[in-house]
Structure formats: structure tokens, C-alpha cells
Amino acid sequence: MLDHQSRYQKALQIQREISETLNKSTDLYDILQQTLERLLDLMELKTGWIFLIKDTTSYELVAYQQLPPALDDNREELMHCYEGCTDCSCLQLYWAGKMKQAVNQMQCARLEAAVELAMGETWGLSHHASIPLTIRGKKIGLLNLASPGRRRFEDDELVLLETVAYQIGLAVERVRLHEQPEVLLIERERNRLARDLHDSVNQKLFALSLTSQGLQTMVTENEETIREAIQDLQHLSQEALTDMRSLIWQMRPVDLDQGLTHSLAEYAQKIGVDLSIHAPKELSLNRCYEEALLRIGQEALNNIRKHSGTSKASILLQEDRHQLTMRIIDKGSGGVLETDQSLGITSMKERVKELQGSLHINSEAGKGTTVTVRVPLHEKGR
């Protein structure tokens, strides 16, 4: 056993080395991974992982070290949010505001699930210490540490871990502040490009459309071939004009102040789709989910306008305790879809994957198309 002076000196050494590690990079994932590895080494522990809060209730696994095979081999299922998952006790306490300081003994629901489902070796781990990451009282994440045969941390160790957690919190804030100018620059560039497209390409397409209309009135009845070519030109220019307006609209910053359904209805009106929406009066979704679902809905509405042969569509939103379902339905020609490799379908799939959800497209000739999106909610999406 170390005496009091030796323990004090070791604590100072750990804080100094963690501080040095946290200042080695401006890449958030890199510094958190390096810091976690160094902390485990200095405290002679084996396993650890860090969650960062993405918004009010959703989280991301940003760093991990020496997870037991049961967790590592099933990381996507056990260490991320997924449909049917009940978030573990540490996160429930954290979100409820009941974890103000380091918690010594926390029985891990993820490890329990791994044992119950025989998902692999857990190295006998069943408990971990949980240390909240905060900045001036604001929740930003959670640090979990464990070691085989270790079920309890000494009080001075917990105090040290709280100090380290505070250092990590400051580093996260520093990196995020460093990133803000870049984010603002990208946003300004998007707005500038949207303005330029509107002021140049959009106006030229509009002029082309008017020119083709004028030419059509000048063609005699005996010049049917020319008339058909001009009609094709007018049709293509109108389509290009609508596509350009849609692109400009999507490049603008997302405004969800009036809710998801209002934004979907507004977008449908902009691109000329007659949309009816059936949804609960209030959807308890956080900003991250609302923005992703809006972008998915926009892409589905674009496909309806381009491919369905109808200008009418409906969106059905259903929410229960565990998941939200969004269906985008048209009664158009059906059977005509963009390929799975197309940008539109790929974009929808990527956004759904980020929410750990599922996407299904059913399109039958003569019966229309239904796009069904299901995303898990539990606590993180609310």
C-alpha cells in the first residue's frame, strides 16, 4: 500500500501526464483515445470507454480501450443505441441529473446482456466506475473504467478521476471552440453558393424557360417536329429550374423552429408536391433526429416529383415508446426507382444508419411507392 504522500505524488503525476496528452492534438477523437489509454496505464486498469453527448439525450462512443471480447465483438449492438435497447443504468442516472460525481460501483447492463445472451468472454467484469464529464455544470459525456476483479475504487481515486474528468471536459470545450470557426466558414460558404446559384444559374434557367415558351408561339402548325423539340426544351428547362430551386432550398440552414411537419409541408410546397401529413400533435424528438428525418423526407419528396408521375403524396408519422415510424407514400406509377447506388437513395440510407434505424422502399408498377423509415427512440431520441 502506498502511503499518503506517495499517493499524493502519484495523483499529481497522473494529472500532469493527462494534461500533456490532452494538449497533443486538436483532433477530438484522437486526444480522447490517447488520454483513455494513458489513464488506464497510469492507474493500472484494463478497460475503459468514453461516451460524448451529441445533444440533449443522444450519445456516441468516441473512445474505448481493451473492451472484453463480448463487448468488442458486438460493439455495434452493445455499445451504441439500437432498436429495443434499454439504456444502461449509468446513462439513465446521468440523463436524470442524479450523477453529480464519480460513482464507485455501477452494475453494467451491457455486460449483463452479454452474459445472458452468451455473446462471448467478459473477463469476469460486471461493474465499472462512472465519472461524469461536465463543463460548468453542462453535461458533455461519461467516462467508464473497469478492471477484472476490481469492484471498488478508493475515495482518493474517485477524487482523482473527477479531476481528470474535469481536464477532459476542458479539452473537449477547447477543441469544439477551435472547430467553431471552421463550421461557421462552411455555413457561410454554403449560403454564398446558394445565393450565387439563385442569382446566376437559377435566373438563366428561368430565362431559358421563357424563351422556349416564346419560340413555341412563333412556330407554324406545319413545323410539328420543331414544335415538339421546343416543347421538350421547355419541359427540360422547367425540370432543371425546379431541381435548382430544390437544391438551393436544401443548402439553406435547417429551420425547425416550427417543427418537423411544418418544415416538410413547406418544402413540399416549394417543389410543387401536394402533401398531406398525418402525425401526432407533438413529436418528442430532439434536434438531431428532426433534422435527419427532414432531410430523408425531402429526398423522398424529390423522388416523388421526379419519378412517380403524380404531384400528390402523404406522410404518416407514428411514435411509440421505443421507435418512430415515418412513411412517405405516393399513388403514382410505381416501379421506377433510383438505383441503390444513386446519390438520393444512398443519402437516405446513410442518414437512417446514423440513427441506427432501418429504411425500406416498396414500389410496384401501377400501385405507387412507399418509403418506410423506422428509427429507435427510447431516451436518446427524445
From TrEMBL:
Gene3D superfamilies: 1.20.5.1930, 3.30.450.40, Histidine kinase-like ATPase, C-terminal domain (3.30.565.10). Residues 192-379 form the Histidine kinase domain. PROSITE patterns: HIS_KIN. InterPro entries: GAF, GAF-like_dom_sf, HATPase_C_sf, HATPase_dom, His_kinase_dom, Sensor_HK_TwoCompSys, Sig_transdc_His_kin_sub3_dim/P. Keywords: ATP-binding, Kinase, Nucleotide-binding, Transferase, Two-component regulatory system. Its EC number is 2.7.13.3. It catalyses: ATP + protein L-histidine = ADP + protein N-phospho-L-histidine. It comes from the Bacteria. GO terms for cellular component: membrane. GO terms for molecular function: ATP binding; phosphorelay sensor kinase activity; protein dimerization activity. PANTHER family: NITRATE/NITRITE SENSOR PROTEIN NARX-RELATED, SENSOR HISTIDINE KINASE YHCY. This is histidine kinase.
